[in-house]
Every structure is written in C-alpha cells, then in structure tokens.
Amino acid sequence: MPLNKILSGLLSGSLFGAGLAVSGMTNPNKVLNFLDVAHGWDPSLALVMVGAIAVSALGFSLARGRLRPLFDDRFVLPVRARPGASLIIGSALFGLGWGLAGYCPGPAVASLTHPGPGLFAFLAAMISGLLLSAPLGRRLVRAHSPRCPTTMSLER
Left, alpha or beta for 40 (phi > 0: left; psi -120 to 50: alpha)? Predict the structure, then answer.
C-alpha cells in the first residue's frame, strides 16, 4: 500500500477520533442520556449528528465533481436504493448494541485511550460479531442476490 494512502488514512482516522472525543461520543453515559428521551434527555449529540451529515454531504458533493479520488483509481459508492434485509437486521443490531452499551464501533476504538468498565466487553462482542458476519454475509449474498452490485464507480 502506498505511503500517501497510509498517511491520509492515519490523518483522517486521527481527525475522526479527535472529533468523537471532543463531541462526547466516547462517553457512554452521554450517549445513553441522548438515547433516553424519557429521563433527562441530552440533545447535544443531535448537533454532532447534524454536523456529521453536513460534512458527509459536502464530501459526496465534492466526490461527484472529481474524476477520481486523490489516492485511488476510482470512487466506490453505494448504489442500492432500497434497504435489504441484511441492512435492516444489521441496523437493528447496531442500535440495540448502542442503546445497551452506549458505544458504537468508532467511539469504542477511540475510547481505548481511556477505557471504562464496559468497553472491553463491548469490543469483544463487536469483534465476535465481525467474525461471524463475514461468513453469514457471504452466504446471504449468494442466496439472495448473486448478480446485484452494491457499489458503483464514478468513472466517466
């Protein structure tokens, strides 16, 4: 892998992790207070999500104006219009884990600098899920949509 790809990934990941830490997303209690609208709801993370959507929209807009990314041959973007069963089930499991533990994958990794009591249990469950999802996902894709592409290139 070229050094410029490694360095851009390191820079992007560091910026992302710093943003998670500054916004409070690495604090599971803050996240759980955001998710609990019935008791002491903390809406501050909604602003973080709105900001993330804005940055993502800007990134997609800039990508559409380029022939190719800076450090790769082509863009790889999602093309599916309707969510499939695997996306719905995966989203439900993600939300369940987030609601129970107060962590999602990015903030959990960023929290390794100051681990809390439930962090290692969450990471163990996350890694187990990742290891199980690959073989199950391949089997689902083969059974339900063997010729359906899930990504597209922005080649012109």
Answer: left
Instruction: Say whether pTM exceeds 0.85.
Output: no
User: Taking the domains of the chain in order of start, what are their residue ranges?
Assistant: 3-152
Sign, CA dihedral 134-84-50-61, equals positive
Residue 146 exposed, middle or buried by CB count within 10 Å (0-12, 13-18, 19+): exposed
DSSP annotation of 84: -
What's the farthest any 2 CA atoms get from each other in the chain? 52
- Phi and psi at residue 150, in whole multiples of 5°? -110, -5
Quick check: 151 pLDDT over 60? no
pLDDT score of 140: 60
**Using CA atoms, how far apart are residues 95 and 50, in angstroms rounded to an integer?**
18
Q: By three-state DSSP, how is residue 132 classified?
A: helix
CA distance 5 to 10: 9
Q: Which regions of 2-133 does DSSP assign to beta strands (E)?
A: 77-78
Reported confidence tier of residue 152, pLDDT bands at 50, 70, 90: very low
